[in-house]
Amino acid sequence: MCVVWVTPSDAIAVEAAALALYWYRKAAKALDESGLSHETNYGQSITPAWKVMRQAGEDLRKYSGLLGLSPADRARLTVGGVEDDSDAGFQGETVNILHAVGGLKPME
After folding, report:
1. How far apart are CA 42 and CA 88, in angstroms?
2. In the list 11, 27, 75, 93, which could disulfide-bond 53, CB 3.0-4.6 Å?
3. How do strand 43-46 and strand 82-83 relate by DSSP bridges?
4. Domain range summary for the chain, segments of one domain joined by +
5. pTM of the model
């Protein structure tokens, strides 16, 4: 029996975390390609990709905390994990979703 932290009722938070990771990586790539600032009629300005990356990073931290994806987050959860193998597949699927968004291979 394993302890399951992420259950099917967390599906919306998983999706939100996956989208935040997607936008974080997309903005990071844009920053890598174009740089942190650009020239405007008023001088140098921070590129919008920086703001997108910063907001996506904040969202990712928020949702990963709600999901208990780090040991520190799990320790702060007031409701303990569920000891139930029926949801263990969903937890593995959650990891696979986050890997897919990040461009990584699914876990086997």
Report:
1. 55
2. 27
3. unpaired
4. 10-75
5. 0.64
